[in-house]
Specification:
six-stranded mixed sheet; Purple Acid Phosphatase, chain A, domain 2; alpha/beta; single chain; ten-stranded mixed sheet
Amino acid sequence: MGDVSIVMVGDTFVGRPDPDTAFDTARHLLADADIAFCNLETVVADLGYLAPDDHDSHPRTDEWKLAAYARAGFNVVNLANNVTTWHGLGAFFRCLDVLDEAGIVHGGGGRTLAEARRPAIIERNGTRVAFVCRTSVGAPEAAATPERGGVAHYRVATYYEPRMRVHHVPGSPPIIHTVPDHGEDRDALEEDIRAAREQADVVIVSWHWGVSSASGGTGKLMDYQTEMARFAIDAGADLVAGHHPHVLQPIEVYRGKAILYCLGNLVHDMHYGERTTSYPAMLTRCLVTDGRIRRVSLFPGWYEGNGPPEFSAPAQARETVQHIQSISAPFGTRFEIGADALDVVLESAG
């Protein structure tokens, strides 16, 4: 059983005319990865697979562009998100076929609920890695059922509590509580993690969750994110990787295992050439030795416009390094700053 390098990035939607340029700044970090994972923030299907009345401007990628993902090294993608079914099941099912034809492993979506829940398993150097995928973002009707295709959806309820002085300060914002399902969905997740554990040496839970800026998000974690991330670790996962908010969120070490609440963006061409967004970014690399994650390294960067980020050594990316340290401080997370990356100290902070 040899060492395995796993590279993970967050939301990735390539819609630009020259798709290979979307990966130029990360190519040197992807080159030696055995496994490269991203959240596929698009549906890969040609126009002919869309319904005649579909004029939705939400992400869609022409099939020929998928080859750029493969050339960059991506071989595992998450489909459990709010984007993959926006253009209907016809385009979604075509996306499944295109990924299969390209040899890209995928999880979190399928033609039935059983297929959507099935972990994405990939083997390299004698080590098997399983990705158990979920989304708590998106239309409830996009959820797969035993008879209908869709995504592996985990339900979360939202409650609004008035603040104590609401009658003194009319219009003051409420306190928001998010409560994950503690019944069927929780049982299914635990079952899937344990099943993945039986089939693989390393289990990673990929979760599309949180609130993006498009919905008023500020990067703050929701209650259910911390509750369910820790539950996933308790159930047997070795690492949790989140996505959807499009910005970096805290890193926690729980029971000696890393929780990356949001990986941020790699590239997002929703409004190619028009965006002026600028914020910290990172690429994550995990080293697996003897079937265990021994190191989690963060390569800091800065995201401009549609991306991809420009990655730099920590000494040249002090603002991003400080941002990661600051947002993770409430969890007591410690980092070792090296010449090339920040290593997460994989010891429980207590």
